[in-house]
Structure formats: structure tokens, C-alpha cells
Fold this protein.
Amino acid sequence: MTQLFALHSAYALTTAVAALDAGLLGDDEDRVLVPFVSARVPETTVGILHDPALAGLRARFDRIEDLDELLGPLHPSAWKPEKAELPVLERLLTRAWGLDGDDLEILVQSPQVAPALTLMRLFPRARITIMGDGLMTYSPLRVKLPHTITARIGRVVHADVVPGVAPLAASPSATVVPVPAQAFRRALLEAAPEEAVEHGDGDTVLVLGQYLAALGLLSDAEEVSQQRQMIDLAARRRPSRIVFKPHPSAPPRVTDALREHARSMSVEFVEYRGGLSAEVLADRLDARTVIAGFSTALPTVQSVFGRDIDSVGTDALLRRLTPFENSNRIPATIVDVLTRADSPYGEPAQLQLLIDAVGYAMQPLVAAHLRPRAEALLRGIRSVDRDRYFSPQRLAELRLPGAPPPSLMDRALRPAGGVGRVEELRLTALGARRRIGRAWRVLRGR
């Protein structure tokens, strides 16, 4: 069998290689890496095909077929051929890549969008595996895929960075295949570029910037305020130094403000702008603690590298995420639970119940099977936790336990039998009017 890995992120590539090294993907003779760049402006990004640090990971594959080169100048996310074109494209790619459509497995990340979705449609007889891409894998799929695709999704392979908790992608039919932490750690370290970093003495605190203002979640002033709180939280641990890793897109004025704030507390402040991932940087620095907003690196730092983690502002962020099905909601929920001292969901079984309930509220059609789990959680949840993780409007829309009582207007507009109550009354009156009209015509002999 040939395995076709359609990947675009270093995290997913690392997960795939760790799974291969751990013997979780079988002993297939032909493994083909099909890399592509998903960035909106590909020219400004170094993809996984050309990143020199990933050369060792790429060497695990028997061959590489560059999807960007094949499609150019078309952006991979815009590759959405018409249904009538699929059989022709299948034959062309089968010949060009030396495939057997009846003996093929496609391993994709982001299965709900092109080009992954297009490849799954192109090869209608291929088995499908979803490759995890961090905490997003713990969320349900954003769209309801056709049965011709979901019936072929056999497994979800993911880095086990939240031990004991299963991801919701392709739930409930797909088999969950967790990649052990040690295998993932080895692959992460192998992919890290050789870079001189001053190793700490075990008393360094690493602070991660995210630049949430660019996502519209915070204003610039709120961004600086949140990161000042991170510095305060780090300083309370009395470290020998604070290392700050800003988001690559964050303006320098943010770092300048934090540097001045750290100096006012007589704490050594060091800015890091190198190419190491947050997880590997924490290991190289021998950081005692890693602090961030809701950085998806935090669970990996904790479970894979054994570092303490903390966060700032996750409760406010959960309230601001819109719409409710925002794909950042599950990652933010996980980080909030893992870094909240008084969380009642710290145990894996309780965290799984919370993730299932939030996942259902996010995608009630895709994750309809999780409604009983959501109802079970919401019947016993504390009001403070319910308000933290669920919006009253969403609970009311889905008629879940804990929803606020409907107002008179809500009752009037609430759908019943497929239409709103006001519309139902209008149709009832119209029908009665027609029946009276017909009876009157009969009485008049018409």
C-alpha cells in the first residue's frame, strides 16, 4: 500500500514522523510526502519542503511530490475542481505519482478544506487518516463532510499532549491513535535548528507572546496590559531571568514596553527572536515555568518536556471568542483548565466531559452524538463554570440545561414544527380564512 501524506505544518510533519518511528502507521513500502504551503501569501513563508531544519524528517519518506509546483500559480486552498473533473484528475495523478487508487491511504490535516478535501474526493476508494495538528485536533470538524468521505476515515493520529483526553476530530467512528510523548519529543528535538541559546540554571521563566490584537481579540493596549500581567506573574516566581519570545508579527513597541516594566521590578529581561519553537526553546533554556495567554504550546511543554505552565486572561478570552464555534475555543478551554488552580476539570475524565460538551455546543450538527454528554455536564456544573465555558445565548439556542428562561418574545419566535410561532399563527389564520372562503362559495353555489 502507498501512503500519501498531504501536510503543510511542521507540527503535523513532526507528528507523522513520530508516529512512523513508533511503528503506529504500519510497514508500508511506499510513503509519499505531498507538502504544500497554506499561508495566504506563500512567497513570505518557508514551507516544510524547503525548511532546512526539517531535512531529517523529510528523509523518512520514500519520495516527495511538491503540490505547490504541480498547482502553481493556483493557491492550494483554491484547488476546488468540479465534480465532473475528478475522474480525469484521478487518472492523471495516479499516473504522475505512480499510485494504485485501490491500494492507497491518504493522511491529511485540515480535512474540511482544500487541498486535503480535494485529494479525498479525487481518490474515492482510498482509506483516510487524519493527522493531528496540535490542539485544534481536539475540536470537532468545522463542517459536516459527506458520508462518502467520513465512511473512509479510519483513524486520527495525534500527539498525545493532553494525556487521557481523546480528540473530537472524526468522532465517534474513527479510531484514536495517540503518539507517545517520548516519540514526539525525539522528533521535535530532531527538527529543531542548531542555534546557540544560553542554557539556564533551572531558574528561568519563559514568557510567550501571541499578538492577539491581530486576531481582533484584544486591542493593542489590552495586548500590552495582558503581557505586562505575564511579566508580573513571572516576576512573582523570583526567577534569575525572564526570557520573552514575542510573536513574529508583533510590533517592537510591545517588547519595549515589557522590557521597561521588567526593569522597574529589577528583573533581568531577555528577548528571544530566533527560530526555535516555544517547546524546544523551553527545553534549551531549561525553563522552570512557561507563561502565555492560551498558546497551544503550553500543553506540549507540560506533558512532553515536563515544565510548569501558567496562563493569563483565558477567562476573558473565552468570553470574547466569536462566533461560539470559533476554532480557538477548544484550545483555549484546554489551556484554561490545565493552568487554573481551582479547576474541577483537571482529571482526564472530567476534562474529556467538558471538551465533549463544549464541542457539541460549537458544532451541534457535526457532533450530534455528544448531546447526552453535554446535558450530563450542564446538569451538574457550577454556575461560575457554566458562564465561563458556555454563553447563555448558545445554551438557549440548543435548549440545553442551564439556559436562561425564554422571554415572551423568544417564545413567540421560537421555531415549532419548522417555523416560528408568529409565522405558525399567521399560516393558521390564512388557512382558516381560505376554508371560510371555500365554505362561503359552496353556500352561494359557486
Notes: The chain has three domains: 2-191, 195-312, 317-403. The first helix runs from residue 10 to 21. The domain at 2-191 is CATH 3.40.50 (Rossmann fold).
